[in-house]
Amino acid sequence: MRKLTSQTIKPIAKPKEIGFILYEGASVLDGAPIVVVATLKTQNRKTGDMVQTWILRSDLNPVEASKQKADISICGNCPHRQNTGGACYVNIGQAPNQVYKSYKNGRYAKFDIELHGKYLSTRKVRLGAYGDPSAVPFDVFKTITDIAQSHTGYTHQIAHKNFDMRYLSICQVSADTPKQALKYQSMGAKTFRVALPNDSLFDNEIECLADSKGIQCIDCGLCDGTTKNIAIAVHGTHKNNFKSNLITTLTI
Fold first, then answer.
1. Which of 85, 91, 151, 182 is deepest in the core (most CB within 10 A)?
2. Contact between 23 and 63 (Cβ < 8 Å)
3. CA atoms within 13 A on the CB side of 228
4. Side-chain half-sphere of 88: how many Cα atoms within 13 Å?
5. pLDDT per residue over 127-143, tens digit each?
6. What does the domain layout of the chain look like in residue ranges?
7. Per-residue confidence at 160, pLDDT binned at 50, 70, 90?
8. pTM of the full predicted structure?
9. Under a CB-based contact definition with an 8 Å cutoff, are residues 95 and 55 in contact?
10. Is 229 helix (H, G, I), strand (E, B) or coil?
11. How far apart are CA 151 and CA 50, in angstroms?
């Protein structure tokens, strides 16, 4: 008679999900091919452990896209793009480039709300760790914000001809001067104003709590497009490139 095996066969473990493709298609801003990836882990000390979403050209790595100024598809007319001498704080060669490589290597599953909704329903989500959310059809991100615990988001594209005004319901509008902030607020937006260090706050603004109190975005959540107008001192390695005709304004 043959003996029974004494070995225990271990099941083959499925690879852990590290993120999802939320969208592949045309940019709302210029029609070029883009991809939106949500990643589940981050070491971002300012935001805390939020799901991060990355808006990238799907045909060019972010470094090359920036060099070619093809990042206009995902950043639109943002004045802070590094290839125009702007003050964008994102190190394009690090996280965005790694996300792009993982995307090209097939590391991310295509998001299916029935299969993957559980990964977001207990999490808080950051719209646009790189790239502008408004480059993406509104319904894509609205689906995500509807199932997530909460979210933060920012757009610089309110003046773009293709801007979807529905984004004012889920994103802060970035402003670079007090006058811009007032204009955008009059349009129904909650603003996120980048300011010079000696600027003053409007009566209806508060300073970013990450700067003033050391509170992470995951615990704050005010930048959801509907709650508060926020101001923050210019920051990042390119902050000296931030130029504007900012004026000191004490009250509205």
1. 151
2. no
3. 16
4. 23
5. 999 999 999 999 999 99
6. 19-241
7. very high
8. 0.87
9. no
10. strand
11. 9
